[in-house]
Write a structure and sequence with these properties.
Layout lengths: L7 E5 L4 H12 L3 E6 L2 H13 L4 E5 L5 H15 L4 E4 L5 E2 L7 H29 L1 E9 L10 H23 L3 E9 L6 H4 L1 E2 L3 E3 L8 H11 L6 E4 L1 H12 L1 H15 L1 E5 L32 E3 H28 L1
Parallel strand pairs: 1-2, 1-4, 2-3, 4-6, 5-8, 6-7, 7-10
Antiparallel strand pairs: 9-11, 10-12
Helix pairs in contact: 1-7, 3-4, 4-5, 8-9
Length: about 325
């Protein structure tokens, strides 16, 4: 089978977690990789890792919340790697806290990185792609873009906003008959370093809600999505059940999360007072692909287009109602 031509892939949040795993996956496929994050030392480490695997990787250390710095970084990466074929927005921040305890400054910072960082990254991608009338933008979303949970109001709000922004832009590009495509990929809990370095106002150290998947699982899925054509993809049964469950019974989920999600996002280990966090400054020593919850983490996950999952659910529901109706009719005629 002939090798595909190398593409230029730019990834934000590429120094750790899902972004780092994505960089490795595309690098292994022979693509040219542009790495964006705040921590230059961590980016240099990722670059060396990719180069050891014979991938061409370049980096720019900027904060995605700084629009002009991000635009300039994108242009410099293009000069070294070539026009952007695929842009992947992944950079994020979170604060584990109730709304009562989070400060306005903390909420603003999470929103600037996790929402506006995606907006600015998308704008940077469009600056390159519009000149050629083609390209692909992938937004790393979350099941929490549909269903907010306790202790992560800022993050959930940002993920909801990303979905609205992306839907608006997609319709504009379709109206223009542009060859640029957008997809959102909604993730379940993932075993990344965010639980080790996120700021938290909790009694105990944070942990993923439920069973997480490993970042490499997500990276493999994103690699497949890069060649896909659907507007939205869901990874893992928890994502599918959360989104569909919230559509059907949001009040039931309110009660379930109120009862389970506070304790479900905390370990039994007391939170270290004044632990180092990455909200305003990177924590270089914790930059790695996996977090601290590999024990029991899933090595595989379902990948399904959101539209297919919705259609299948409607079809199954219709079949169930038809079967129930037929059974009731037979009983009446006996």
């Amino acid at each position: 089978m002939p090798r595909k031509p190398a593409r230029t892939i730019i990834i934000t949040g590429a120094s750790a977690g899902v972004g780092r795993a994505i960089a490795r996956r595309f690098g292994d496929a022979g693509d040219r990789i542009g790495l964006i994050a705040r921590d230059e030392e961590a980016l240099r480490d990722v670059q060396r890792e990719l180069q050891a695997r014979f991938a061409h990787a370049e980096y720019e250390a900027v904060d995605v919340a700084d629009a002009q710095a991000l635009f300039s970084a994108s242009e410099r990466l293009e000069q070294r790697l070539g026009p952007v074929d695929i842009w992947i927005n992944d950079a994020m921040e979170t604060v584990f806290s109730t709304v009562a305890d989070i400060t306005p400054d903390e909420f603003r910072r999470v929103t600037e990185v996790t929402y506006l960082g995606f907006v600015y990254g998308t704008m940077a991608a469009l600056r390159s792609m519009r000149r050629r009338g083609e390209g692909r933008i992938i937004q790393i979303g979350s099941a929490l873009a549909y269903r907010g949970i306790p202790l992560q109001a800022a993050y959930c709000g940002a993920k909801h906003a990303i979905r609205g922004f992306t839907d608006s832009l997609r319709a504009e590009l379709m109206h223009e008959r542009s060859g640029i495509t957008l997809s959102i990929v909604d993730l379940p809990a993932v075993n990344t370093p965010q639980f080790d370095w996120a700021r938290a106002h909790l009694a105990h150290a944070p942990r993923p809600m439920g069973r997480p998947v490993e970042p490499e699982v997500i990276a493999d899925a994103i690699y497949r999505v890069a060649n896909g054509g659907f507007r939205e993809y869901w990874i893992g049964w928890p994502t599918l059940l959360t989104i569909l469950g919230n559509t059907v019974a949001p009040a039931l989920l309110d009660r379930y999360l109120a009862a389970k999600a506070i304790a479900g996002q905390q370990t039994d280990v007391p939170l270290v007072p004044d632990r180092t966090d990455n909200l305003h400054h990177p924590v270089t020593r914790l930059h790695r692909t996996r977090g601290s919850f590999s024990r029991g983490a899933a090595q595989h996950a379902l990948l399904v287009p959101g539209d297919v999952a919705r259609a299948a659910t409607v079809a199954l529901g219709a079949a169930l109602f038809f079967a129930l109706g037929a059974a009731a009719s037979r009983r009446r005629w006996r």
